[in-house]
Write a structure and sequence with these properties.
Blueprint: H1 7-19, E1 22-25, E2 30-38, E3 47-55, E4 58-64, E5 75-78, E6 83-86, E7 88-93, H2 104-109, E8 112-117, H3 122-134, E9 141-144, E10 148-150, E11 158-160, H4 164-177, E12 181-184, H5 190-202, E13 206-209, H6 217-222, E14 225-229, E15 236-237, H7 240-245, E16 259-260, H8 265-274, E17 277-279, H9 282-290, H10 307-314, H11 329-347, H12 367-378, H13 383-390, H14 392-397, E18 415-418, E19 432-437, E20 440-444
Parallel strand pairs: 2-5, 2-6, 7-8, 8-9, 10-11, 12-13, 13-14, 14-17, 15-16
Antiparallel strand pairs: 1-20, 2-3, 3-4, 6-18, 18-19, 19-20
Helix pairs in contact: 4-5, 9-11, 12-13
């Protein structure tokens, strides 16, 4: 990802062209996937030669093909030589953007059957959720914060809170809307941040978001933050010499974390104790790492996005006319350290969730998650651990393990049928042959590049 068009990006582009040719949505209420290898986050080994039966939007049976009855009215999908995994989740996206409705299907065709939207118009999100639930719109399951709470004016839907009283009122207004969680953003003062977090806890709402410069990551965690986005205010491990050499050359590079030679173990242990999850969004941070260079790996799938969305995204990180030849050296070095930092946090027991900040240039809807998972593998996670992070752990974070995250009778039928083994190579998670999204079957009919 750090230069030119890598094999990863080339395959991603080929996959995008195929995924945009979806098959028909089956009208049958019963689907049976036969003779398939089943993999989920409960075990690092496949369950071979299984048959999975879905009725409506629920899995009703999972077992050996030789012992599992296929109902006579079932639509049968031959799973021989294929692999069935739970639907993937992208835990940091923004769907309500120009052209956003048009690209919701891209999540599904990439196997991303659930997203957590962290800033959007609540009325629009509610309407899309209804349409997706009714089967009138192809799109992922959406968990959403609605407008986030911010301490200053920004061009994104938000609730302004500059005092503790306004923070409490903001949380009350979001609770009345019925949001799934509260998101806090970057311009909040210490007093207002803690007041908002306290009010959300009192309402029984999860709190996610940025850590503003007015507080530390530990303080945010102690305040009840359940997910820390972009690793903000988590320092980057550096030697004293690196701290000098990697001082940010542009203000935006500060997002990649200040250098520190201090032991981060105490912070990691605090995050674990407080059950604060971290959403690294490495694929999005690469835009900052490479800034202000103009080429990004995500551009390889730009042609499949609507013009309205491409124009909108192009405005997010405007590029200067004059660029020094080595302008990105510091950013790229810090970004590599951030990848290693994710591995260190994971090994320390910190909960990691996959997120992309889609639809940025380097994280197109659906496609960006596959790049993020490849980066998690670079951080040292095994293919099984990456799969677990993208399926089981989001369900755990959302308190939805009773219905999502694994393949078992009684669970919601959010399933992805793959053409190759994801335990052999995390890149195989993008080789989607079919999905069952809330029990509705969509097949990819066009031939796939192998």
């Amino acid at each position: 990802m750090t230069g030119g068009r890598s094999p990863l990006v080339h395959r991603l582009c080929l996959g995008a062209l195929v995924a945009l040719v979806p098959g028909r949505v089956a009208t049958a209420q019963v689907t049976a996937i036969t003779n398939v290898s089943v993999i989920d986050g409960t075990s690092p080994t496949s369950r071979l030669d299984q048959t999975v039966v879905v009725r409506g939007n629920r899995i009703v049976a999972v077992g050996l093909a030789s012992a599992t009855r296929v109902p006579p009215d079932a639509r049968v999908v031959d799973g021989r030589g294929k692999y069935l995994v739970p639907g993937l989740w992208d835990m940091h996206v923004h769907t309500v953007v120009p052209g956003g409705r048009e690209v919701l299907a891209l999540y599904v065709t990439n196997g991303v059957l659930g997203v957590r939207d962290l800033a959007g118009d609540w009325a629009q999100l509610t309407e899309w959720r209804r349409e997706i639930g009714d089967g009138h719109l192809v799109g992922p399951r959406i968990v959403a914060s609605g407008p986030y709470i911010e301490g200053g004016d920004v061009p994104i839907v938000h609730v302004l809170a500059r005092t503790s009283e306004e923070a409490r009122a903001a949380v009350d207004s979001l609770a009345r809307l019925g949001v799934d969680l509260v998101k806090l953003h970057s311009q909040l003062s210490r007093e207002v941040y803690f007041a908002a977090a306290r009010a959300a806890r009192e309402r029984g709402l999860q709190v996610a978001g940025h850590v503003p410069r007015s507080i530390t990551a530990r303080e945010a965690s102690d305040s009840g933050l359940t997910s820390l986005e972009h690793m903000l205010q988590i320092p980057t491990p550096c030697t004293p010499a690196e701290s000098l050499a990697l001082a940010p050359r542009f203000p935006i590079q500060g997002v990649l974390g200040r250098c520190t030679s201090e032991d981060l173990g105490p912070l990691f242990r605090r995050l674990v104790a407080n059950r604060t999850w971290v959403v690294p969004t490495l694929v999005a941070q690469y835009e900052i790492a490479a800034w202000p260079k103009r080429e990004l790996p995500g551009d390889s799938v730009a042609s499949v996005l609507p013009d309205t969305l491409r124009r909108y995204v192009a405005q997010i990180f405007p590029m200067p006319d004059s660029i020094p030849p080595d302008a990105d050296v510091v950013g790229r070095a810090l970004w590599e350290k951030r990848i290693a930092l994710v591995g260190a946090m994971y090994r320390a027991g910190v909960g990691i969730l996959p997120g992309t900040d889609a639809p940025l240039r380097n994280s197109p809807p659906g496609f960006g998650l596959h790049q993020e998972m490849a980066l998690l593998a670079r951080a040292g996670l095994s293919p099984f651990e990456v799969l677990r992070v993208a399926t089981l752990e989001p369900a755990r974070y959302l308190g939805a393990l009773d219905s999502l995250g694994t393949i078992a009778a009684g669970k919601v039928a959010d399933l992805v049928l793959l053409a190759a083994d994801p335990l052999a190579d995390v890149g195989n998670l993008r080789r989607v042959d079919a999905v069952l999204a809330n029990g509705r079957l969509l097949e990819m009919r066009a031939p796939r590049a192998r």
